[in-house]
Amino acid sequence: MVLEATMIVVDNSESSRNGDYVPSRWEAQSDAVNMIFSAKTQANPESSVGLMSMGGKGPEMLVTLTTDFGKVLDGMHRTKIRGSTYLATGIQIAGLALKHRQNKSQKQRIIVFTCSTIHEDEPSLVKLAKKMKKNGVSVDFVAFGDLDPDNTRKLEVFSETVNSGDGSHLVIIPPGPSLLSDHLLSSPILGGDGSAPRSGEDGVGGAGESGGGFEFGVDPSADPELALALRMSMEEEKARQEKENKTKSEAAMESGLEGIPEEGGESQPLLDPNGEASSSGSGTAPATEEPKEKEDDADKMDTA
Question: Taking CA atoms, which of 48, 97, 198, 252 is between 20 and 30 Å from 67?
Answer without folding.
Answer: 198
